[in-house]
Fold:
Amino acid sequence: MRRRDSKRRARRPAGDLVPQTPWRRLVNPYPPLEILSADHLESIHDTSLRVLEELGIEFLLDEALEHLKAAGAEVTGQCVRFDRALVMELVSRAPAEFTLHPRNPERSVTFGGDHIAFNSVGGPANASDLDGGRRQGNFADFQNYIRLMQSLDVLHLCGGVPVAPIDLDAETRHLDCIQAILTLSDKVWHATGLGRKRVSDAVDMLAIVRGVTREEVRRKPGFFTTINVNSPRRIDGPMLEGLIEAATNGQAVSLTPFTLAGAMSPTTLPGSLVQQNAEALAGIAFAQIVAPGAPVFYGSFTSNVDMRTGAPAFGTPEYTRATLVSGQLARYYDLPYRSSNTNASNTVDAQAAYESQMSIWGAVLGHANLLHHGAGWLEGGLTASFEKAVLDAEMLQMIGEFLQPLVVNDETLAFDAIAEVQPGGHFFGARHTLRHYDTAFYQPMLSDWRNFETWHEDGARNATCRANRIWKELLRRFEAPPLDPARAEELEAFVRRRKEEEP
Amino acid sequence: MRRRDSKRRARRPAGDLVPQTPWRRLVNPYPPLEILSADHLESIHDTSLRVLEELGIEFLLDEALEHLKAAGAEVTGQCVRFDRALVMELVSRAPAEFTLHPRNPERSVTFGGDHIAFNSVGGPANASDLDGGRRQGNFADFQNYIRLMQSLDVLHLCGGVPVAPIDLDAETRHLDCIQAILTLSDKVWHATGLGRKRVSDAVDMLAIVRGVTREEVRRKPGFFTTINVNSPRRIDGPMLEGLIEAATNGQAVSLTPFTLAGAMSPTTLPGSLVQQNAEALAGIAFAQIVAPGAPVFYGSFTSNVDMRTGAPAFGTPEYTRATLVSGQLARYYDLPYRSSNTNASNTVDAQAAYESQMSIWGAVLGHANLLHHGAGWLEGGLTASFEKAVLDAEMLQMIGEFLQPLVVNDETLAFDAIAEVQPGGHFFGARHTLRHYDTAFYQPMLSDWRNFETWHEDGARNATCRANRIWKELLRRFEAPPLDPARAEELEAFVRRRKEEEP
Structure:
């Protein structure tokens, strides 16, 4: 079956170690997998509204409590109870679909419906790679990670904070991070939603690189932020401030309860989904009070702990089923749906791959619109791995290809080709093959399909070692996407000024 | 989130390195994923019948040609053309569901409908593990592999020939293999279908260990064999002999064309599926001529080659889509469906895991009834890896758990548990948690969920290294399932006698 000729080799330029599928929007053409009956889904919905009516959610911010009271919720101390009609009315204000606009207008991304988009990991405290090992996050790693996320064409979005640069001042590091993202990348990004100023600065800085006003950024939003519920049933002050600032400025908000079954939510999956649903709907309802029509994601993060130790687990069978049911719930409310690419492995190995696959398939079959933490997440989210980012990119490229609908027509049904090749023959030289071989099949970035002997003689590198070469090659050839120097200077000046303002 | 108490630890006996889900039959409760429209499916069906009518299939056995001619097929030399009405009539004779009965009646397995069962790898020339490296197959490895397949409770079936024992005489090694399988395992197995005598010996030997006649084994079949089409459009003599012997003795036959798109079939996926379908239907039709009502599988193996090199690839996006469409085709003909767990990696790494996941998800969503090569396949099927077997078993256990329907009722919806735990609290001590934690979540065999520091201090073993410990532990504690000594002796005598008969 081995055959080489110059024409075939010509497909991949010599020295091109990193074949990628182009940056392209993806639509999921297949029906979602519905694992719960309509009745059972209704009972999760119903019980979660009972939680909101009878038990309530804590909102740890006076300003938020005032908004909620004015809108008709029942406020007792910091506990807020919602009438179910009120919840449903507020949730119905949220758009079923919206678009985010980065500085490069060609890279806008639409969420909702059958759209599906991939983002990098966000939030880890540590960085890791095979050369440098595991270390605390720092700004050099942060910048390299952004370069890598920009370079991986399968990722529609870039950042957030893939690794926390703890060598920078905590009060102003968001300015450095956003500046790095907006100069090194031209993709939609994820801004930290902790407190008002971080979100407000993100709006200003996006306005600068797009060369527009804050009002225009409000009208055509360009980033999203994650508002985690401090489960069970509590949304803390800085999160609420960030939510208010993002929503009133028109930026997208992902309401994502942290419902780890057995620890922060009940030890049964339906119960955890009830709690997730109550918490997500409460946050979404609140967003629609402060900014009616604000773009939001229904965020799911439900997983489970190891009951023997309490350690969080990800990409488990429970996680996959929760992801599918969450998709059913998001569609029930007609909301764009955000999921994640998770795993609990401590190293970039087979476990990291199969737990991620369990997460990815849950998201794809559940019709997630945004796969957050799409590339790089390791160790339950504590570490951003450079090799894992490449591994994830390969897995996502394969999914992207899987989502291309089969073209069925006379040419692809290939009766003539089958007629041309004799029994026991082969198709290598068939005219049909020559017409199709350039575009026929997915070409991998990371997978090695050479025979054992060739692979062994060439160093017997496993996928993780090959991923190491790939990210270094991508960084070596990285070029920042062009940015008007005047805007770059304005951005620089903004960051300088804002740093001077901070105490 | 860390919590330990003696009750929790008591769940897993001290020193139990290998928690497994019990041997249990699995039913796929979810709807299949249909990626082709009914129209497009019909056009694949229609074109494949055109292939059978106009182009035909070569049958390289005179006896087969006589059967085919007598049944009304058009025979020209070795080329057989089928009228479409004839094909459909013959295929309709095959049962939609059947059961295989091993020597342990409690381990019978039903195929068809929504049943799904997992088998080990079959066919590799090499064995491999971390200690011994990659080596040519031998009988010691064969026996250890059978012990491992028997020990992995997630596997419903065991063997065939997971690794070829080339240190044994080629003409009689099937006798040693079957004897080993029937003494070391009590599961349904896969017998080599190459030629008549191997299949006939399998029938005799199964009759001996079940303590019944050949006729009873015919009536209640106990193994299956794979009949590969030598694609394109050719079934060779030994395969046809094996098919005739298996079908006339009532044993199940998996008709599996070897349609590697770009090499043995067209360079477009619909074209390869047309060819696969024509070849599979021809083989199934032939089986129904020689033994009307014989149990058969619709076998799919369609993958693609790397067009640059001709190297076979597995677990690709094309493979997954072909697996799903093949499921649609099998259901179209109301036939039990056989798929595989494949990958092209040369080592047990992340690639081996993600390519296998792409295969497994295709099979599960395509409603395969038999996942052949379920555990151990490496390197495009050239090597049976002991560590890969454990990795696969973990992935299949997770799928088995994923296929358990969620129980939704007042207890699992857990309103009272949510009411019991205050906002910002935790569920560790909740009464609901105490009621559920023993059975709440999937307990992994291979995944390591400990935190990084603990994992690192304990040797920082990746999943492959951990798999190495697991299979050795399973072999260490292996006990063969009880077999009546008289039957074991009779089996031994049969093998001795048959060896003496061979030239």
Remarks:
- The radius of gyration of chain B is 24 Å.
